[in-house]
Amino acid sequence: TIFPKLQFCFPLLCSLRNQPLPPSSGSNPCCSEPCQNRGVCTALGTDNYECDCTRTGYHGQNCTTPEFLTWIKMSLKPSPNTIHYLLTHFKGFWNIINNISFLRDAIMRYVLTSRSHMIDSPPTYNADYGYKNWEAYSNLSYYTRTLPPVPEDCPTPMGVVGKKELPDAKLLAEKLLMRRQFIPDPQGTSLMFAFFAQHFTHQFFKSDMKKGPAFTQAKGHGVDLNHIYGDNLERQHKLRLFKDGKLKHQILDGEMYPPTVKEVGVDMHYPPHVPDSHRFAVGHEAFGLVPGLMMYATIWLREHNRVCDVLKEVHPDWDDERLFQTTRLILIGETIKIVIEDYVQHLSGYHFKLKFDPELLFNQRFQYQNRIASEFNTLYHWHPLMPDTFHIEEKDYNYKQFVFNTSVVTEHGIGNLVESFTNQIAGRVAGGRNVPGPIMYVAIKSIENSRQMRYQSLNAYRKRFNMKPYSSFEDMTGEKEMAALLEEMYGHVDAVELYPGLLVEKPRANAIFGETMVEMGAPFSLKGLMGNPICSPEYWKPSTFGGSAGFDIINTASLQRLVCNNVRGPCPVASFHVPNIKETGSMIINSSTSHSGGSDINPTVILKERTTEL
């Protein structure tokens, strides 16, 4: 059939299928998650509870009976997998849509509003508050929470289902998450994408491990480019030249690179063996970790100083401060444009062409604010993207040779790094068993942190983001072996934890991710991007960005243009997708047949737990 995955859901049947478990006697009755469809549970003693169904579109004791309009809407609405199928097939049809601007705009507007309305704004809960209160709203030191933590007085860690104790994190990771052999991403994702993801997201995923995983140091909660400019004014001032709006830099072999720590005096995390000359100083203190991060830090440093020159030419009367501040806004715009039209476009696999146009939302109900959720941080641990070795020009680097080796950046040069990373394929994220041995410690830490914050189950999050909960372990993994291991470890499919569940989930056909990763990740992502103040009606006009010259830089930005404007000599192809994958794939895949050697290096020791997110 043309539509092998079409699923339409009739709400009365759905509500029967999703009936909550009866409350466990003697414990908090909300432990069984009795309130469905985003209803709010309040315990009334130990043997009764109340569901608040206000504005959910449902009523009844557990918010399971749809109102008439809800019933109509849910009856007609195709499942997420159906929508995904339509958007990733019928290329000829989408080519026509992409060229009819009012249709493209209408679909893009729907994509933005339908996704971002899934995110509560203003924020609601945090790790310490499972009910709405002023502290959870006002304290920016916390990540927000999409679902409240599992109450502390529940019979099991996931409420009332599953075993009394969760499986050992290390054993779970080794059996289900650790790579046996490199599994390349069938979507053809490149390492250029993997390092962009790491570089871009660490401006807002910056856990304050001194306080714990529920806390963040990135109090801007969005795209503010603190990873370029520093997350406080003192650091920013140390990185600035205070002339023509520019950032401090050094020239090596005629090319611009970040200055050294010795020269600017900012804190950076480097182990003792890195010589002073290679201790580059950038906005984020942990970006010396891998050359891929320092490559992007260098590209954006060059772009900042280039844009300053463009603005200075148009506004010779502007002082250093105005040039700096306006350039920062332009780079924020470029970043959002590249993330939507190159990065998210690649990830989606859609034939529909995504568009960054803030004006699409000007007549919509939309809040220009954002708060980063800890669940978003957790799901973004995409370490299976990383290969077994890094292939740059004619050299192969293992993890021990690659980590904290900033000399790779200057030795090969930015152009060669871009070319090499564009041509090396990344790993598949979903489907299990693809986290490289040397960075398994990050996956284990992620499981431990999730437990500390008492996340609800993968299925609870699937329901929260309008997906049907998995009915069995095989339904979740799409195979038998890992399903049996999960059953042995968790006992019940509703007890599978969020992070391991996301990584063992069956991938969509020929895709990098499974359904949950995309359906959860996209709302967080698009709300965070479009909720930026520069996308608001008062900001989104040429004068904000120094006139048409600055506005044009944003509106014509792309990954390829960013690289070409900042690399000397012939411009390499820069892409989130490996070009000519059939020719380069087998050469670079470099599958290891054994476990990746985790004994070579343990960056945890060097980093003292400071960057387990990286």
TrEMBL record:
<keyword id="KW-0256">Endoplasmic reticulum</keyword>
<dbReference type="GO" id="GO:0004666">
    <property type="term" value="F:prostaglandin-endoperoxide synthase activity"/>
</dbReference>
<keyword id="KW-0223">Dioxygenase</keyword>
<dbReference type="InterPro" id="IPR010255">
    <property type="entry name" value="Haem_peroxidase_sf"/>
</dbReference>
<keyword id="KW-0643">Prostaglandin biosynthesis</keyword>
<comment type="similarity">
    <text>Belongs to the prostaglandin G/H synthase family.</text>
</comment>
<dbReference type="InterPro" id="IPR050783">
    <property type="entry name" value="Oxylipin_biosynth_metab"/>
</dbReference>
<keyword id="KW-0644">Prostaglandin metabolism</keyword>
<feature type="domain" description="EGF-like">
    <location>
        <begin position="26"/>
        <end position="64"/>
    </location>
</feature>
<dbReference type="GO" id="GO:0016702">
    <property type="term" value="F:oxidoreductase activity, acting on single donors with incorporation of molecular oxygen, incorporation of two atoms of oxygen"/>
</dbReference>
<dbReference type="InterPro" id="IPR019791">
    <property type="entry name" value="Haem_peroxidase_animal"/>
</dbReference>
<dbReference type="Pfam" id="PF03098">
    <property type="entry name" value="An_peroxidase"/>
</dbReference>
<keyword id="KW-0349">Heme</keyword>
<keyword id="KW-0732">Signal</keyword>
<dbReference type="GO" id="GO:0020037">
    <property type="term" value="F:heme binding"/>
</dbReference>
<keyword id="KW-0408">Iron</keyword>
<protein>
    <recommendedName>
        <fullName>Prostaglandin G/H synthase 2</fullName>
        <ecNumber>1.14.99.1</ecNumber>
    </recommendedName>
</protein>
<dbReference type="InterPro" id="IPR037120">
    <property type="entry name" value="Haem_peroxidase_sf_animal"/>
</dbReference>
<keyword id="KW-0275">Fatty acid biosynthesis</keyword>
<keyword id="KW-0325">Glycoprotein</keyword>
<keyword id="KW-0276">Fatty acid metabolism</keyword>
<dbReference type="InterPro" id="IPR000742">
    <property type="entry name" value="EGF"/>
</dbReference>
<keyword id="KW-0245">EGF-like domain</keyword>
<keyword id="KW-0575">Peroxidase</keyword>
<feature type="active site" description="For cyclooxygenase activity">
    <location>
        <position position="380"/>
    </location>
</feature>
<keyword id="KW-0444">Lipid biosynthesis</keyword>
<keyword id="KW-0472">Membrane</keyword>
<keyword id="KW-0443">Lipid metabolism</keyword>
<keyword id="KW-0560">Oxidoreductase</keyword>
<comment type="subunit">
    <text>Homodimer.</text>
</comment>
<feature type="active site" description="Proton acceptor">
    <location>
        <position position="202"/>
    </location>
</feature>
<feature type="binding site" description="axial binding residue">
    <location>
        <position position="383"/>
    </location>
    <ligand>
        <name>heme b</name>
    </ligand>
</feature>
<dbReference type="GO" id="GO:0005789">
    <property type="term" value="C:endoplasmic reticulum membrane"/>
</dbReference>
<dbReference type="GO" id="GO:0046872">
    <property type="term" value="F:metal ion binding"/>
</dbReference>
<dbReference type="GO" id="GO:0019371">
    <property type="term" value="P:cyclooxygenase pathway"/>
</dbReference>
<keyword id="KW-1015">Disulfide bond</keyword>
<keyword id="KW-0479">Metal-binding</keyword>
<feature type="binding site">
    <location>
        <position position="115"/>
    </location>
    <ligand>
        <name>substrate</name>
    </ligand>
</feature>
<comment type="pathway">
    <text>Lipid metabolism; prostaglandin biosynthesis.</text>
</comment>
<dbReference type="GO" id="GO:0043005">
    <property type="term" value="C:neuron projection"/>
</dbReference>
<dbReference type="GO" id="GO:0004601">
    <property type="term" value="F:peroxidase activity"/>
</dbReference>
<dbReference type="GO" id="GO:0006979">
    <property type="term" value="P:response to oxidative stress"/>
</dbReference>
